[in-house]
Task: inverse folding
């Protein structure tokens, strides 16, 4: 018996090592793809540059016009796409892992709409600054998360019930947002409606630095919560048996995911579907049993950066990045719904 157990343990360890190696390789390839896409985005525009000029400008080897184009004009937008995409990827991973549902997404369960409502109130009623916009988006997202959580709570929170409640809250908030825009002054209403599409056009270096700092702290907290996430994936009973306070851990992770989404929403508006798509793509690439944060962050960064590049250079006129992510994510959502329906037949 002891010999047989040792053999099983060794086999499990070999499988775990193989999956860890695959995850490391996948992360390295994704990081290289993000770097290449970033260089391409910095090269492309009305003033074309070579890869050597871009790298020289980034390393301080070039001054003058090329340096200004790369560092002052294009780099903040590219950095925003990478940082915000990574934040959305991790936010989606947190929700899908915590609720054990591939459809768990801040946009679908109403949390992105809650952040947008808070930001709309700041834009339309207060005409506040960027910092007030961040606070409004964060308060709106957390208030919506608490409302969804409380309405879905019945001796604990089940992922499916929370998603259904979230969809209902999302519809209500969507109607409220439309009413706010229709009753606002024309200039503010047009600005709020354009911001609703999700765009990186107006993102400044100050917003990137502030948002990136907040997101870095939140990503660190998410990494520290990885153990609780993995245990929640096993089910509430199994997690409780291992000493996890299920309700408190789930609520804390939901607030963490909301904070990531709200930080991005305050700077760029709601960028849809990245948080839904990125964790599932990362899971299929790594072939892991659960959802891992690092691959989800890198996939999110690559998706956001690629979508923003397409939005700028493929259409005759530049488009908000949210339009491209909706087009790509809508097709993926349809495929995911069909796959899940066939699995349960």
Result:
């Amino acid at each position: 018996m002891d010999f047989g157990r040792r053999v099983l343990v060794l086999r499990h360890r070999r499988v775990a090592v193989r999956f860890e190696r695959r995850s490391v390789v996948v992360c390295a390839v994704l990081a290289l793809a993000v770097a290449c896409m970033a260089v391409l985005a910095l090269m492309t525009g009305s003033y074309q540059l070579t890869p050597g000029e871009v790298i020289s400008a980034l390393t301080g080897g070039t001054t003058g016009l090329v340096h200004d184009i790369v560092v002052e004009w294009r780099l903040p937008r590219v950095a925003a796409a990478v940082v915000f995409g990574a934040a959305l990827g991790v936010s989606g991973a947190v929700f899908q892992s915590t609720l054990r549902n591939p459809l768990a997404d801040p946009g679908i369960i109403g949390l992105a709409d809650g952040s947008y409502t808070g930001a709309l109130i700041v834009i339309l009623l207060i005409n506040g600054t960027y910092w007030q916009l961040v606070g409004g988006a964060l308060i709106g997202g957390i208030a919506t998360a608490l409302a969804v959580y409380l309405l879905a709570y019945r001796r604990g929170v089940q992922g499916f019930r929370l998603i259904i409640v979230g969809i209902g809250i999302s519809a209500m908030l969507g109607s409220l947002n439309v009413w706010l825009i229709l009753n606002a002054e024309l200039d503010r209403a047009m600005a709020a409606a354009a911001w609703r599409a999700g765009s990186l056009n107006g993102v400044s270096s100050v917003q990137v630095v502030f948002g990136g700092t907040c997101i870095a702290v939140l990503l660190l907290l998410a990494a520290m919560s990885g153990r609780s996430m993995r245990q929640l994936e096993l089910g509430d009973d199994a997690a409780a048996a291992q000493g996890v306070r299920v309700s408190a851990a789930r609520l804390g992770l939901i607030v963490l995911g909301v904070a990531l989404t709200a930080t991005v929403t305050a700077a760029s508006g709601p960028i849809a579907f990245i948080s839904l798509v990125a964790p599932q793509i990362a899971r299929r690439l790594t072939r892991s049993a659960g959802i891992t944060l690092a691959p989800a962050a890198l996939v999110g960064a690559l998706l956001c950066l690629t979508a923003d590049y397409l939005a700028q250079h493929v259409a005759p006129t530049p488009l908000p990045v949210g339009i491209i992510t909706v087009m790509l994510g809508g097709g993926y959502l349809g495929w995911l719904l069909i796959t899940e329906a066939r699995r349960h037949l």
User: Anything to note?
Assistant: DSSP finds 14 helices and no strands in the chain. The CA atoms of residues 214 and 263 lie 8 Å apart.
